[in-house]
Pentacotripeptide-repeat region of PRORP domain-containing protein
Amino acid sequence: MILHMLTKNKKFKSAKSILKGILVLGSIDLPAKLFDAVLYSYRMCDSSSRVFDSLFKTYAHMKKFRNTTDVFCQTKDYGFLPTVEFCNKYISSLLDLNRVDIASGFYKEMRRWYCNKGLLSSTVKLKNLMGKDSLQLNVITFNTLIYGFCKEEKLHEANMMLSEMKSMNVTPNIVSYNTLINGFSQTGNSEMGGRLYEEMVRNGVKADILTYNALILGLCKVGKTKKAAYLVKDLNKGNLVPNASTFSALIIGQCVRKNSENVFQLYKSMIKSGCHPNKHTFQMLISTLCEKENFDGAIQIMQEMLERCMSLDTGILSKLYSGLCRCGKDQLAMKLLNEMEIRCLLPEGFDKARAINLKLWS
Ligand SMILES: *[C@@H]1O[C@H](CO)[C@@H](O)[C@H](O)[C@H]1NC(C)=O
Ligand SMILES: *[C@@H]1O[C@H](CO)[C@@H](O)[C@H](O)[C@H]1NC(C)=O
């Protein structure tokens, strides 16, 4: 009764702390008893469905995720539903904790309900309490799920979500498309990215820089640099400005093609445009330049990393060092190592003495 009164008067914090107290200390079967008690006193107290919201939220805050889903199913059978905002937040916190399994289970429950379009299932006992409570999944629900599946590289499931939202008359927006295109691009599936892009244009959703960056990355990852260059032109036509992510993607493309000339040119235009490469991009540049034995280029990039106090990984440093030694630039190689040591930028695990010894014996 206290819970009903508190939630009816929107004293959610107090309700939550009472619930927490009960649940933390209570016996195992208490949650089920609590649920029944709340349910059967509901009418007498002329309560509102917010009391169940409190129950969900408390379980969710206590990270009792299975219980949250269980309670969701139970209350759903009685025609009570949490708000869609709560569901969205709940799914998103599950995904933050990498619990895509529970998130998709929860979604399935939401969906079953949704598909009944407000009709109660046959087990419903308190039918008269229903009516206004019906759960409308919204675009945020789906975008959250699409994001979660993409993060786990479950692209098939992510794509199913897009179909599903369309079948439920929830219109995909720019976030839905961008997330999905990016997901496919990250795994090198540029065809799907392209198809989604066409669909989005057909549906009148205007591409933004994130769309282009994702598409360009997808193409570059598989070395389709020409197509990527066309997209850069489109981007300019659309009055969008390429940023560091665009350049990094283009650099990836040239690295995949092992074209060290173009890699270097791109790097220069990136700097000229005021964009800053991150460590990953720098390392990719150095690695490609070393493979192509363009050590002057590699050293120039390396110096710029040092100026930014960025270190590089052991593997790449070894590659650069041994490459320099191989073409007789031992002194330069030593100078570089010394400089890194002075700035405390020698990567952990890189043994300078050993590197020099190996060199002496080779
Ligand atoms: C909550 O979860 C625990 C562990 O899975 C289970 O033992 C307990 O019965 C659940 N409570 C409810 C109300 O479902
Ligand atoms: C490029 O722009 C997009 C959109 O504003 C942004 O999300 C992204 O973080 C930017 N990339 C970098 C590296 O700043």
User: Anything to note?
Assistant: The pocket of 2-acetamido-2-deoxy-beta-D-glucopyranose (ligand 1) is lined by residues 28, 31-32, 64, 66-67, 70 (CB under 6 Å). The mean pLDDT is 86. DSSP finds 20 helices and no strands in the chain. Residues 100-116 form the longest helix (17 residues).
